[in-house]
Design goal:
Blueprint: H1 6-16, H2 19-23, H3 27-31, H4 38-64, H5 66-69, H6 81-95, H7 108-126, H8 128-131, H9 143-158, E1 162-167, H10 182-192, E2 203-209, E3 212-222, H11 228-231, E4 253-262
Antiparallel strand pairs: 1-4, 2-3, 3-4
Helix pairs in contact: 4-6, 4-7, 4-9, 6-7, 7-9
Bound molecules: heme C.
Length: about 260
């Protein structure tokens, strides 16, 4: 789905430690002593990248099942929350440098990842009647919708500590709920869309959200060829989901996974 498995590469870089490596991503922490030490920041960014990675992995599973989901002749597809969760974790493990280690049940990272895994399973289980509806083709259970439902459920569970949202530049937003807030809009435009921004590189900063102090991360998403049936040309023509196509080209910025980790 993404040309560069940036997250996995990044984790390796973070593990190597050292401000020089981390600096590109976390310039402020390296330059300003007022902001917490890079070690804390690296942990935060690792958590954020893991959450983004797991969301992408679950989306990949739902994308790969579209033909199955949309087959009118089969009723029960057997596509349960447990199966999607297991496949998502397998993809996550393959893409990242190893399995998630739940070694500290009290750690924030464990709690957040567990909440996300539970959210993935619940959303699939709760949509069984849609997925299994016989006699109709396209069900509308597309990866973008699935991801939004997972993120909403994640917020219900752990919204006090963290939030995940898929957002996009204003002109590409389809669902109002995906609209970028001020911080997202500014940084998508000025960082991720700037001509000298290295493709795939994420942006992170300590920034307020809803008046709360937070560590915020934007992981860019780019359109691939497989996105163009809905988001490509001709611009304005309806796609299968009933939205007008945006007329974008493969490789251009589609949006970002925006992760917020609230600071105590
Ligand atoms: C089957 C049609 C379809 C395909 C294929 C598709 N999308 Fe979408 N996309 C949608 C729909 C529908 C929404 C709105 C989802 C919602 O209601 O939250 C959406 C929303 C999004 C959003 C969130 C912003 C918003 O407007 O709500 C992004 C980012 C996005 N798509 C990127 C992609 C990328 C990248 C790909 C390819 C990997 C892709 N899409 C493939 C239909 C599609």
């Amino acid at each position: 789905m993404h040309a560069i498995d940036f997250a996995a590469a990044f984790r390796k870089i973070v593990r190597k430690g050292g401000c020089n490596y981390v600096a590109v991503f976390f310039l402020t922490a390296c330059l300003s002593p007022a902001i917490s030490a890079p070690t804390t920041a690296a942990t935060d960014i690792e958590i954020a990248v893991q959450l983004a990675d797991l969301l992408r992995s679950a989306r990949t599973v739902i994308a790969s099942k579209q033909n199955m989901i949309n087959k009118p002749s089969t009723g029960d597809k057997g596509l349960t929350g447990a199966i999607v969760t297991r496949e998502a974790l397998a993809i996550f493990h393959k893409r990242s440098s190893g399995p998630i280690s739940f070694d500290d049940p009290n750690a924030l990272s464990d709690r957040l990842l567990r909440a996300q895994i539970a959210a993935i399973g619940e959303v699939v289980d709760e949509n069984q009647s849609t997925i299994n509806r016989p006699g109709i083709g396209f069900k509308g259970f597309v990866p973008a919708v699935f991801a939004r439902l997972v993120n909403e459920r994640f917020k219900d569970k752990v919204g006090l500590y963290a939030e995940i949202k898929v957002t996009a530049p204003m002109e590409l937003v389809r669902n109002r709920k995906a609209r970028p807030d001020h911080w997202e809009r500014e940084n998508i435009r000025n960082k991720l869309m700037s001509p000298d921004w290295r493709k795939g590189e994420l942006f992170s900063a300590v920034a307020k959200k809803l008046r709360r102090k937070a560590f915020r991360v934007l992981v860019p998403k780019y359109y691939g060829k497989n996105c163009l049936s809905c988001h490509g040309g001709p611009k304005g023509e309806m796609d299968i989901t009933g939205y007008p196509k945006e007329g974008v080209k493969a490789g251009s910025l589609a949006g970002a996974i925006s992760i917020t980790l609230y600071r105590p």
